[in-house]
């Protein structure tokens, strides 16, 4: 990384500053480390939002910079979440099982321990045996490696297949959608080895920290998410700043031209697709311990389309736009659907926002696409440039 | 003067329509060559075949001293072997500056990881300056390419080809939409480029071709109709029949 | 006074009715019954046959109602003189009917006792009844009797059934009787030759009944023995491959051929029960955290006689290997089971063929649905390069249109006829509106069109939810579309699916006609192939785009009505079809009706095919389906029917 890179990119500096201020403010106001104005559940919401911002910048890189409208990045987010969820669930169940076997006259055999854990975890899908994919679940280090490897490999294989046959445009979008659909359908099966539609649950309980309050755990996750977002932002800003950025944006604007300049376009796409998938996986691995549960519905095609919606509303091709879009829309969405927004009484009809929020979102999304193709971030550009 | 590119007996069919029919052309190095012909004569398809965009049904395309077959190589491999191509429509990266456009084209390792590690060098900057000077865009290096005039975009694209430092340059209608003055400058750039390398120009405009003062190949219905100086081919009766006779040029 | 007079009258009446029945010779049935009075009143399985034989021989017409009543415990005997009556209980009274004359009467229950044949006797009576019922002059009763035999086939029924065949006048029933007689003789005929002949004759019968007969003949029981037993063995099971060693050993234990196994739980319990001073048989409990140590401790306990001896897993498998596990036919005659097995195999081959045909029909109807759902999408995608994510919601709109119309027009046939054009009109209008307001401004930005239409899609979906609620709404098909066209036991297809197939066919022809034979089609094709050139030739691409979009949306509306007829109408029904529709278009190839047809067929047949391989798991089927499509696109990125040439290269 160039030493001077950050200083050549004032927007990166501004972003880091804003993020730092926000993080500090939340810390000071939190229940765990501060005056307690911000509730633990809201800290969780904010922490999750930061993770969504992280996957949103990944989406922005792959779509806004490279021109690949992936409708499947939540598959990587989800696999990252599942990878960490497996360890969380295994380690926690192991603790519970060990405690319950403690009092027995004869110490348990490894097989008995494993059977007991298996029954605890897979009893809900009528099984007690560990599927092969749980082979590393007892090791945090290996499962953390899986957080990176599984989404990375999935993206590498899928991307290699798709890009080498030169599938582009809407075809590619549909294909990525098919990928995430196939994955979620697979995970919905009881014999998928990941508890079917029950998913993995109890993820908010961190093994080894049973005595730590949720307030503290949430704050720690919030801070880690903020650091991850900052790191991801700097990483993407750096990758997209240099010649790499030139080539990638060139591919977006005119793929054939880049190809005739001698660049192997497919490798670049694969690089961007895989890198963003890995970051999406990391974002998911941070998100789901805060959400507490992951199930196959999380990676249904609709989730990835919403991701595209956030990035479009925030403004493509600028990383802070993606952050703004993801934060703005997802927080607004939970405000509206959570009943936070006051109902509007029209006399003959009362608008309940839980019913009408999606209509509003859909219509405003159409308007953004039509009238503000650069999104909220574009508005930002306009304001910043105006004085000059 | 040695043969750089040899196209022999190439045919290609689209849905029963023979776009290229047993075409054979040799290009030497250095050489300036103009390829002319009416619409549908197969000029663009010829370029597509050489640059790897279209695979011929039969025939050979052989490249360089080592007689490497270009068939079966990908577009980027062919470009890296030393063939640059300019499209009919000016295709530059409009959102990026002229300098970025040229920097992207500069001859450097093309893999994603070497590009990621790439740093700006004084040598590279000097090359960009030199090319900008050659195409007359020195004053516009920091402007975004989208703001350039049509002619300037064409020159920028030619500049990008030169930055690639290819041995063979395929140029599709460089003068389209240019003013007379701009054409003259384009002619100069191409002629200078052809002093050290092979340049193939596909053109409609007879005036422009005349000014290039080079060997001319006339294509008709996918094969070579005549070859030689412009004066020679324009006297050829078959050329007059199929091309000049029907053309308003 | 009054009461006494009544009682006297009653008594005299009773006497009057008794006397003739007992004495007169015009009561032939009563006479026979009185001959065997004891057997009738307290029948035993053996003794009853004498009565039945006599009754049968008498040929009296009222034997049948008597037998039925006897079987159903409706016969009462007057205790005073032993005369039998048909009787119905009515509180404390009995409504009596004379067995021969049918003369009716009422009496107090006290003087009568009910004849209650036991279960065994009732079955014998039933069998005898069958004979009468099978030859009953009433066709309905004969059919009922035949159906009863089919429900509960029994060896005794064979003879009366065969006997009744010749006298049967109804052709259909006669055929059924012959078939049933065949089934019965396959299982119960006395001679092996007869049975084999009957079994052989079943080889062309693919009905479930015939297969059940064969399967019953081939019924097996599993067993285990030290040596190969002398029974009709169906197959020998090898422990470890055909059944698990643990199961095999458990069978051995059940057959008392081996001592009880000591599974790990038993070992554990035994060890826990024998802890002394923190150790078991001298081994400290802390060391008992592995199976080897536990077995050692247990073995030590066994040596001391505290627990049964340890049967290790290697001993178990040795014992299992030494024994013979087998499945034996219940039928002892190997000749019969051999023939039956061969015939069953033949029948199953026929059934498999029929199932393939049935599967093909299923796949065809699924393909029709996909075609209907996708063709509108394909048209807009092909002509305008626009992916309409709201296409599914147009399907939904069509279905809801049908639902609303049915609220006002109760006649289902009429309402569907109104719904089809109305749905087309509404979705056509919606499509044109959307094109004018949104899509038009996003040409050449296909990805953004995709997203904008997605926005419309979520808004429409939520709107439908707000208007119609979340529960599914019915769209009822007309009565003449209920039921199925049954070709055989295996091959059948519901009329509604046939109707959808026909609808798809009509649309295929209609669309082909519009595209190939009309001015509009010519212009559409021109715009598809070269919009610039088309515009310069005086075609207004704007108008064509609008009409095309309206057409595509309108067809979606009609597809919605069709889909709504067999699936539930919900606000999410569009979302269920949109991905499949995309796949259909992408697999088929863009801008070509035949491509969509090919795509729909491929996907429909493939999905049914995968479901057939793995019928229990439709999710897995869908997963493999999508994976297949992803791979398919690798090899044919432009779909099955790809446009070739320069137009396709860009």
Short recap of the structure:
The complex is a heterotrimer of chains A (388), B (249) and C (650). Chain B is 38% helix and 27% strand.
Annotate the secondary structure layout.
The complex is a heterotrimer of chains A (388), B (249) and C (650).
Chain A: H1 5-8, H2 10-29, H3 40-65, H4 73-102, H5 110-122, H6 140-164, H7 169-188, E1 200-201, H8 214-241, H9 243-253, H10 255-260, H11 265-291, E2 293-294, H12 301-314, H13 319-337, E3 344-345, E4 350-351, H14 353-371, H15 375-385
Antiparallel strand pairs in A: 1-2, 3-4
Helix pairs in contact in A: 2-8, 3-8, 3-11, 3-12, 3-13, 4-5, 4-6, 4-11, 6-11, 8-11, 12-13, 12-15, 13-15
Chain B: E1 2-14, E2 17-29, E3 31-36, H1 43-51, E4 58-63, E5 68-69, H2 75-81, E6 83-86, H3 98-105, H4 112-117, H5 122-135, H6 150-164, E7 168-172, H7 180-193, E8 198-202, H8 206-212, E9 215-220, E10 223-229, H9 230-235, H10 237-244
Parallel strand pairs in B: 3-8, 3-9, 6-7, 7-8
Antiparallel strand pairs in B: 1-2, 1-4, 4-5, 9-10
Chain C: H1 2-23, H2 28-35, H3 37-41, H4 48-58, H5 63-71, E1 75-78, E2 84-90, E3 93-98, E4 104-108, E5 112-114, H6 119-134, H7 139-151, H8 158-165, H9 171-188, H10 192-201, H11 208-217, E6 220-225, E7 233-237, H12 245-254, H13 264-273, E8 279-280, E9 283-284, H14 291-303, H15 313-322, E10 324-329, H16 334-384, H17 391-408, H18 412-437, H19 446-468, E11 484-486, E12 492-494, H20 495-517, H21 519-529, H22 531-536, H23 541-566, H24 573-588, H25 593-613, H26 618-635, H27 646-649
Antiparallel strand pairs in C: 1-2, 1-5, 2-3, 3-4, 6-10, 7-10, 8-9, 11-12
